[in-house]
Amino acid sequence: MATTSASSELTLDQIQTFEGKYPKQLWYLFFSEMWERFAFYGMRGMLIIFMENRLHITEKAANLQYGATQAFVYTLAFVGGMFADKILGYRKSIFWGGFLMIIGSFILGFAPEKLFYYGISFTIVGTGFFKPNISTMVGGLYKPDDPRRDAGFGLFYSGINFGALFGGILCVWIGKFYSWNLAFSLAGIVMTLSLFIFVFTKKTLGPIGISPLVNKIAPSRILVYDIMVYLGSILVIPLILILVSNTDYTDMVMYTFGPLALIYIIYETLKYKGAERAKLIAAIIFILFSIIFWAFFEQAGGSLALFAEHNLNNSVVGLKIDPNVINNSSNSFFVILFSPFVGLLWLWLNKKKIEPNTVVKFGLGFIFLAMAYYIFYYTRFFADSNGITSLNIFTIAYLVITIGELCLSPIGLSLMTKLAPQRLHAMMMGLWFLASAYGQYVAGLLGAGMATADDHAPLMTKLISYTDGYKQLSIYALIAGVVLIIISPLLRKLMHDVH
Ligand code: GLN
User: How many Å from the N-terminal Cα to the C-terminal Cα in the chain?
Assistant: First the structure.
């Protein structure tokens, strides 16, 4: 990769040889991503409530449409990553994605009932261009072998969760109690802030994120390609609109898109030889495991939300808090609390030369996941005769699942930037998020499988039904963790110099 460019002041080398724990550019990306996640999780929190209360969609249809939006957001991250790698570069992709998200949010702010599906379709496509590419840029701040990279992604991850926590709480609160127009517009305002921060600080990023076509083809041709991508993405919006409003199509898309993406990445992998190919294979294995992780983890938006609504009391450490608020916010809260420590712990262990390798960290992620679901299961032993159980124990399970997430998710982002060759960085990041799309999708199926057939069954029956499901998930998570540890020598061989 070129280390200088006409338009930048800093060279790549100057950026990557920073002193201290974090490069200063990480903070700029941190704040851009924080506001983007504020808008995203704000929107996510509002969706299902708005659909039920204002659009008067049935609970089942609302659940399915909610699942479809989540699945499409992360599916499009793969497409957004691919276009960034090949044509736009990360910067223009982020700008374009942010711009579409702003339009989407303001459409919703303007006429939430009438233009609902238009608004969310804009935000879905916009997020696809924004989300994977900002994460990829974090990777660009580090030299390939810099041990500070995982800690950097850890910090970036707390930015994500600051945004998620405040957006998730504020937008829903404003929407429910004041005005939906204002709440959706707020997402647009903070997204504008995100983009401002990005635009005003991007000069400090030197050559990171400029189009891969610069210096390869004439600027006028680059412009033509760029415009084609912009137009193409606008044309996709009506298609997304149809898909989200008719969830029967979601299954079809999920059945075809994933296998096609996998075939494509295998095709790209075969273009490489030796170590580069092996590393890509390792990346694909990690991605496949992450689908299982997210499928279990993402019960949060579905079955755990219903479990919280029906089967939990409202007392946590002596305070009266609505169990659904805990379900929506405790994960982000614990990430913010623990993420810096986990990042610094890895650095500290690295200095002592006893930092666990990535495969072990992934394995630990699954072990914590298994423990957390065992605790969700265990809540049944604290239930009263009406089937209402302890919010305290439920919150502890969230703490444990968050530690698992921190062992796997920030490291996964970091890993994608280490294992993929430069020209596939954003696409692999997109593939990582595509795994989240499938996670969301499978999570819905698992959740539906756990629900009692009768919506009006006694709460005790619901408690038993859900907690039985959580016990199963705990066992499967444990098996996945053990399989990872068993295949770790093979995986480590494939990873070559990446730890
Ligand atoms: N909570 C993280 C984020 O919003 C991870 C989401 C995911 O990959 N499923 O970025």
Answer: 23
d(CA 330, CA 395): 7
Give phi and psi for 407, each to the nearest 5.
-75, -20
Instruction: Return the percent helix, strand and coil in the chain, to nearest 5.
Output: 80, 0, 20
Strand partners, 320: 315
The residues that bridge with 316 in the sheet, in sequence order, are 319
Q: Is 311 in the pocket of ligand 1 (CB under 6 A)?
A: no
Question: Mean pLDDT of all residues in the chain?
Answer: 90
Task: Give residue for tokens 């979601």.
Answer: 250
294 lines ligand 1 (CB under 6 A): yes
Residues 389, 480: contact at Cβ < 8 Å? no
- For residues 162 and 337, is the Cβ–Cβ distance under 8 A? no
Q: Determine contact, residues 105/124, Cβ cutoff 8 Å.
A: no
CATH number reported for the structural domain that contains residue 277 in this entry: 1.20.1250.20
Number of domain units in the chain: 1
Nearest-CA residue for ligand 1 atom 9 is 436
160 lines ligand 1 (CB under 6 A): yes
- What span, in angstroms and rounded, lies between the C-alpha atoms of 102 and 250? 25
Query: What would the pLDDT profile of 314-331 be if each residue is shown by its tens digit?
Result: 899 999 988 888 888 899
Structural domain range at position 345: 2-495
**Beta bridge pairs of residue 315:** 320
Ligand 1 centroid–CA 2 distance in Å is 31
Q: Is 20 left (phi over 0), alpha (psi -120 to 50) or beta?
A: left
pLDDT in tens, 218-234: 999 999 999 999 999 99
3-state SS string over 44-59?
Answer: HHHHHHHHHHCCCCCH
